Amino acid sequence: MRFLTPALLLAGAGFVHWYNAGHTDSVLLFPFIDYVLPSTKGDHAAMGAASVKLLAALGVLSLLLQLKSGSRRGDQVSVD
Fold first, then answer.
1. Contacts of residue 55, Cβ cutoff 8 Å, sequence gap at least 6
2. How many CA atoms lie within 13 Å of 14's alpha carbon, on the beta-carbon side?
3. How much is the pTM?
4. CB 12 within 8 A of CB 55
5. Rounded CA gap, 66 and 5, in Å?
6. Distance between CA atoms of residues 34 and 73, nearest Å
7. What are the distances in angstroms from CA 37 to CA 29, 31, 41, 47, 51?
8. For 34-70, what is each residue's pLDDT tens digit?
């Protein structure tokens, strides 16, 4: 269960990338991405790409935090 958040964030990044690549008339993007990255303002494709990168970065960051906390506690990662 502890890897659920990273898995959902990475799956969300994959879905947004898949959706944005296949739909030219609409774009899924992270809310307020144009305020976080003002250079993307008005460019929907760039905002969609930045949203994918943001979701993927959050997923990788949360995965690394989970792996670090597991190694600190001495937990063994088992695949059952």
1. 9, 10, 12, 13, 16, 30
2. 8
3. 0.80
4. yes
5. 9
6. 39
7. 12, 11, 8, 8, 10
8. 898 999 998 999 999 999 999 999 999 999 999 888 7
